[in-house]
Each structure stands twice: as C-alpha cells, then as structure tokens.
Amino acid sequence: MSFDVDVVARRGEATVGARFVADDGLTVLVGASGAGKTSLLDMIAGLLRPVCGHVRVGGRTLFDADSGIDVPPEQRRAGYVFQDARLFPHRRVQANLLYGARDAARLAEVAATLDIAPLLRRWPRTLSGGEARRVAIGRALLSEPAFLLLDEPLSSLDPARREEAMRAIERVRDARAVPILMVTHDAAEAERLGDRVITIG
Ligand SMILES: Nc1ncnc2c1ncn2[C@@H]1O[C@H](COP(=O)(O)OP(=O)(O)OP(=O)(O)O)[C@@H](O)[C@H]1O
C-alpha cells in the first residue's frame, strides 16, 4: 500500500481530514474548494500536525498519534510541488533543479523527461507558468523523494501548456519510481492521469 492515511486537523474554524488507502501509481485527490485538499497534503508532508490518526507511506509510519510518532518533514522525503512553483528567484533553472538534489548525475535524464533541458540557463522570472511548474517537479524528483505530492500542478495554464505539463506528469507516472498524490479540480485531468480518484470533503 503506498498511502495509508487517516487524519483530522483543525484549521481556524474548520475541521478537515480524510481517510483512504491507495496503491502505487498516481492517485488523484478531488474535492470542493476549501474541502481540505492542501491541508491533507500538508499533513502528509509533515507541515501540519493532525490532531489524531496516522500517515503511512510505502509501509513507513510518518505520523501516528497513538504511538507518538511524528517524523519531521525533512526526514519524510516528500517531493512537494506547491500550487505556486516557489522557485528561488536568484538562482538559474539549473541551480534550482540541483538545490537539494541527491544525485546530480540524474539532471540530464530528469530534464529530458520533463522537457526542460533548453531552460537550464534561464532565470525563473523568464519562465512561463507551465515551464516553472515543470522545473518545480524536476527539482522535487531530483531530491529522490519517497513520494510526490502535487498540488494543482496544471491549474491556470493555457491549453497548450497544460498539455505539455500533463505529458510530463504522465512520463513520471509511467516510470513508476514513486507513488504520486495529485490534487486537481478538473474531471478530465483526473480521468486521464489518475490510476484512481479519491474524493474528500
Ligand atoms: N492558515 C489557516 N488558518 C485558518 N483556516 C485555514 C488556514 N488554511 C486553510 N484554512 C481553512 O481550512 C479549510 C481547508 O483549506 P485547504 O486550503 O486545505 O482547502 P482546499 O481543499 O485545498 O481548497 P482549494 O481547492 O480552494 O485550494 C478551508 O476552510 C480554509 O478556509
């Protein structure tokens, strides 16, 4: 089982949470705006502490309220791609990709998979939204994560960029190297990319 999650957290006035198990491949998470999708990714990454429950990924317990386990975020090895790409503006694309990389020798391979090889010398501010997202996914992959969390990686892209980004995610998915949890609002995207769809809220 790749993801085994059963969590609840409080966010201001709201209580958010989810319970699901998911196998390898790409699991899509859908739910209304405010349902708690980002909060759920934050709990899996270790950025938001659940009030109860557990988080297990690939058989490893990352959080368990009953036994007091709470692995710190940097030891969870999540490749988290946030809604905004959050590249370092003062580093070129290549330096962004290599930030936190565990195996720099994989740079060319990852850049080819995501079709970003021509962008390596560019500054983040010169990238389109789709290019920046692909670089953010590449940076996450080069950190050799145990799992990938993608928060709406395709939102607000025009159709051409969306198609490019979708193909890049398909290639990562089909390589089967890491389980992926991806949030989307788009039913067609969920259908095309997801091995399964989980609805929360
Ligand atoms: N820092 C915060 N303080 C208080 N409430 C918060 C905070 N962050 C989120 N919330 C609330 O928690 C709930 C879940 O938010 P979250 O961002 O996880 O939802 P979401 O499903 O990802 O939404 P969207 O699809 O709009 O991105 C919402 O009701 C939101 O208003």
Explain the overall architecture.
By secondary structure, this protein is of the alpha/beta class. It has helices spanning 37-45, 73-76, 93-98, 107-114, 129-142, 159-175, 187-193, and strands at 3-11, 14-22, 26-30, 52-57, 60-64, 69-70, 78-81, 147-151, 180-183, 196-199. A 5-stranded antiparallel beta sheet has the order 2-1-4-5-6, with helices on one face. The chain has a 5-stranded parallel beta sheet with strand order 7-8-9-3-10, with helices on both faces. 41% of the residues are buried. The mean pLDDT is 93. Residues 11-12, 14, 16, 31, 33-39 line the site of adenosine-5'-triphosphate (ATP).
Instruction: Tell me the fraction of residues in β-strands, as a range.
Output: 25-35%
Helix content: 25-40%
H/E order of the elements? EEEHEEEHEHHHEHEHE
Q: Please outline the major beta sheet.
A: 5 strands, antiparallel
Number of strands: 10
Number of separate helices:
7
Are there runs of 5+ residues with pLDDT below 50, and where? none
Average pLDDT, to the nearest integer? 93
Described by the principal axes of the CA atoms, the overall outline is: globular
Q: Tell me which ligands are bound.
A: adenosine-5'-triphosphate
- Radius of gyration (CA) equals 16 Å
**Straight-line N-to-C gap:** 22 Å
SS content category: alpha/beta
Order of strands across the widest beta sheet? 2-1-4-5-6
Characteristic terms for this protein:
ATP-binding, 32% helix, 5-stranded antiparallel beta sheet, globular, binds adenosine-5'-triphosphate, 5-stranded parallel beta sheet, alpha/beta, 10 strands, 201 residues
